[in-house]
Amino acid sequence: MGEHPSPGPAVAACAEAERIEELEPEAEERPPPAPEDMSNKRSNSFRQAILQGNRRLCSKALLEEKGLNLSQRLIRHVAYETLPREIDRKWYYDSYTCCPPPWFMITVTLLEVAFFLYNGVSLDQFVLQVTHPRYLKNSLVYHPQLRAQAWRYLTYIFMHAGIEHLGLNVVLQLLVGVPLEMVHGATRIGLVYVAGVVAGSLAVSVADMTAPVVGSSGGVYALVSAHLANIVMNWSGMKCQFKLLRMAVALICMSMEFGRAVWLRFHPSAYPPCPHPSFVAHLGGVAVGITLGVVVLRNYEQRLQDQSLWWIFVAMYTVFVLFAVFWNIFAYTLLDLKLPPPP
């Protein structure tokens, strides 16, 4: 009788992946799936670990790895901050090369700081710049009288109400946006950020029609809301340290910034009859974060176009944008709204 042939590399890799899957708490409640039964809900990293026999995965948790240098510990930290599944964390840790680096969030942050410093020197004011009489004359600010200038719906992110406004947005962009971009890439994170920015200005044009808009809070709140929602939805799988305390700190910081924006909106204006900038952009960013943003963050290494929920939220976002465009074209005239004069 002939000897049984040794298992192929794909079978061996499958067995390795199944042993890793046992490290996750939820794996105890269901048997490991067979390769042919996998759906798109499985990450590409899991499928590749099975289909590529030369993929070598260690059976112990990534957190137990010893002797790592500083850069390796940083990558491991980012993996545990953003990914809820051990198999995805291992795949990210082994495959991340920092090429390209997280350039999008860093570039946006540097531009915001540069524009703020330029305006501070020009206006000779850094705290509560928004109260300066010449502040709204800048061509980047969204102003309801100039809503036909389409670039203002995006460029308003480079203008901030003051150093206190810029400071919190920059901190959140770097602490949350950069790690997310390291994991999910500039295209996906940039998409969520820009979608939040545009949704923020359009939301103001619909819900707070007489107010201008400044600041990057729409994009920042989209990223932070998506990250916090992803942590809550995958609470048992997220292994980041002190996650409850850190979520509380993030929510407190967001609430303080939102409270500052609400206070400023209803504070007596420095350039009547035009009010101070609106706070509604924050809410537009949150809406994008808990819809499009959550789908992006939950589908690491997967094609978004294969996810039905992605197309549902894209359709909802598109409907909102079209509604806001038509609102801006017709509603201001039909409502006979008295807008503040152009700056």
Short description:
The chain is mainly alpha-helical. 58% of the residues lie in helices and 0% in strands.
Can you tell me about this structure?
The chain is an all-alpha fold and 343 residues long. The chain is built from twelve helices and no strands. 58% of the residues lie in helices and 0% in strands.
The helix-strand sequence is HHHHHHHHHHHH
* Low-confidence region ranges: 1-15, 20-43, 49-59
Assembly type: single chain
Global geometry = globular
Structural class of the secondary elements?
A: mainly alpha
Mean pLDDT: 83
Rounded Rg: 24 Å
How many helices? The count is: 12
The percent range for helix content is: 55-70%
EC number: 3.4.21.105
Catalytic activity: Cleaves type-1 transmembrane domains using a catalytic dyad composed of serine and histidine that are contributed by different transmembrane domains
Subcellular location: Membrane
GO molecular function, one term: serine-type endopeptidase activity
Index terms:
single chain; 343 residues; mainly alpha; 12 helices; 58% helix; disordered N terminus
Question: In terms of topology, how is this protein built?
Answer:
Elements: H1 9-21, H2 44-51, H3 70-82, H4 86-95, H5 103-123, H6 152-155, H7 163-184, H8 186-207, H9 217-233, H10 243-266, H11 280-298, H12 308-334
